[in-house]
Each structure stands twice: as C-alpha cells, then as structure tokens.
Amino acid sequence: MSRFEDERREMIEVLKGRGIGDERLLQVMAKIERHLFVSEPFVNRSYDDTALPIAKQQTISQPYTVAFMTQELCLKTGAKVLEVGTGSGYQAAILAEMGCRVFTIERHVDLLLQARKMFEKLGYRIGSKAGDGTIGWSDFAPYDGIVVTAAAPEVPEPLILQLAEGGRLVIPVGNLEMQDLHVITKIGDPFEKKVIEGFKFVPLIGKKGWNGQ
Ligand code: SAM
C-alpha cells in the first residue's frame, strides 16, 4: 500500500460529500499523490481539504477548489487546456492525467522549475513556461478550456480571445480579500456566464492583473 492511501480515499469522500460528481475526475484525484506536490512541514496535511503554503509565498489550492474548477471546465479527453498559475503543478498534473493537452504558465521561475521536475518524474508531457499568464499563451491558442488559479481584478481580455468557440474560462474575480468564480462559455452574445460566490485565492499579478512583485 502506497503512502497516504487511506487519507487520499478520505479526501475523495469529502469531495463527493461536497458535491463533486465527475467520476473520471474523482478517479484521477484518487490516483494523483498530492503529497508529492507539498513540502515539509505540511506533507502530513496533504489530504486535508485545505490550501497549503508552497515556496514564494504561494499556495497549492484546496482539493475541493481544484476539483470544482476542473469540473466546471467540462473537458473532453484530448481537449487543449491552458492553466495560468502552475504553482506546485498539482492542478496541471490532474488535467494531464484526465487526458488533456496541457499548457501552463507560472510567473515565479523557481516554482515552474520545481513543477517541471515533478512532471518529468511522473511522466506527464505538459507544455510550460515562466511568464505573465494574464496575456495568455497565444502560440497554442485557441484553448478548449482556460483555468486561472489566482485572483484577478477583472477578466483579462487576451484569455477570452484565446478561447475556442464553445470553450470555457474558469477564473476567480474580485478584490484581494474575496472572489467569485466566473465560468464563461464562449457561446452566444454576450457569452454565457455563471458566477459562484465565495472563493479565496492569491493575487494574479501581471499586465492584466494586479500590480505587484
Ligand atoms: N494551480 C496551482 C497548484 O496546483 O498548485 C495553484 C497555484 S497558486 C494558488 C497561484 C499561482 O499563480 C501562484 O503560483 C502564482 O505565482 C501564480 N501567478 C500569479 N500571477 C500570475 C501570472 N500573471 N501568470 C502566471 N502565474 C501567476
């Protein structure tokens, strides 16, 4: 039995209890070892349903938040996805394990290099770069899904432009204290939008985000 297997199973039960119903996603989250993306002294808390600190004063998102955002993306196998905010690499690994073609951008080079090492170790082929994800990654656009894992003051226009017809953008929007999750589907005029209240992320810093270091 691999390390933390019971804890991982319990985490899945928590996610189900909170309304995550996508079976394929639950299977993937039951398989991926979140503790590999967490550092000491937090490793023992890897399967708590909570965000945890990583380097550069950033966080690995709460499992429920990762699951909810991924479920809202409604991705089919083979879909092309852009993640803004690689952080630990956990969310990108989930998307890759779900059979998506994943591209991810992180503004902190150190975090990106560490996440890349983990992708290699686990055998995921994920396109990644260091940079400002608020302007997207036009080279590989359009994307079937774009997920932003940091809080934006407003929806960055380049991300909408880089979304495929029918594609979905999932992004927390609000002030620095509290945000709502916006799920925008590129269909109709204006585009379909759903807003889910009450999330808390680290800030999205960049040209189309907040000012910061
Ligand atoms: N998805 C991550 C995971 O699975 O661990 C969680 C990431 S953390 C909540 C958000 C990340 O977004 C941080 O690592 C932060 O440095 C990054 N970030 C903030 N602004 C960014 C930007 N403009 N472009 C790319 N990354 C950004």
Structural overview:
This protein has 213 residues and is α/β, with parallel strands linked by helices. The protein has one domain: Rossmann fold (3-Layer(aba) Sandwich). Helix content is 28%, strand content 24%. It is built from 6 helices and 9 strands; from the N terminus they run H-H-E-E-H-E-H-E-H-E-E-H-E-E-E. The strands form 2 sheets. The protein has a 7-stranded mixed beta sheet with strand order 5-4-3-6-7-8-9. Helix 4 links the parallel strand 3 (80-84) and strand 4 (101-106). Helix 1 packs antiparallel against helix 2 (23-31). It is globular and about 50 Å long.
Main sheet: which strands, in order across? Answer: 5-4-3-6-7-8-9
Bound ligands, named by name, code or SMILES:
S-adenosylmethionine
| Strand proportion | 15-25%
Give the overall pLDDT as a whole number.
Answer: 97
Computed structural class: alpha/beta
Helical content (DSSP H or I, runs of 4+): 25-40%
Cα shape: globular
The largest sheet, given as strand count, sense and whether it forms a barrel, is:
7 strands, mixed
CATH architecture title: 3-Layer(aba) Sandwich
| H/E topology pattern | HHEEHEHEHEEHEEE
Count of all domains: 1
Tally the helices.
6
Give the CATH class. Alpha Beta
Q: How far is the first residue's CA from the last residue's CA?
A: 43 Å
Instruction: Spell out the CATH superfamily.
Output: Vaccinia Virus protein VP39
The CATH topology turns out to be Rossmann fold
